[in-house]
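B., you asked whether I could sanity-check this one before it goes into the benchmark set. Here's the sequence:
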Amino acid sequence: MAKLFLQRHLKSQWNLENKFTGWTDVPLCQEGVESAKTAAEKLVDLKIDKVYTSPLIRNRETVSLILKNLGKEKLPVIFDKALDERNYGELQGLNKDEVRKQYGQEQVRLWRRSFDIAPPGGESLKDVCKRTIPFYKKYIEKDLKAGKNVLVVASHNSLRAIVKYVEKISDEKIIDLELPFGALVKYQFDNNQYNKI
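And here's what the prediction gave me:
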């Protein structure tokens, strides 16, 4: 019975500064680096065969720090842009509170959490699903079907896309799904079924 572990990256510098990050390649902040040991402790007793992540530095650093803390630096790690965060378009680099003041709380919530409303010049979650889910099915789900335990370390919206697929969350309900920094979601995969553990 295979297991799937979804890990959101640790806190980045722009997360700390409350900025929309998207495709901007920003490293982890000191707080994020220091939280790696705690994140690794949640994975310590779990067998991991393979790791998938995005090439964005905050995801790569999270993988590197967690594997180092686990003493598992030799695990195979696959990097792919399909797992990148959503592109926040014109909002990238802007302070989230300032954007809320300008456009209103509800508009910003729709841009950040709804399924098919994209920020100006950016991607909606629907767009993220179009690149993340085919990659997920082709590679990660194939590994799960082969009995491998897989750790996916990625950004918030690429993970939300995967959770939407795995848990069959409706387009309307996905707005309520939020994964905090360093969040770990675990599933058992058996007979093409996912069960949260």
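One thing to flag: Residues 2-196 form a domain with the Rossmann fold fold (CATH 3.40.50.1240). Otherwise nothing jumped out at me.
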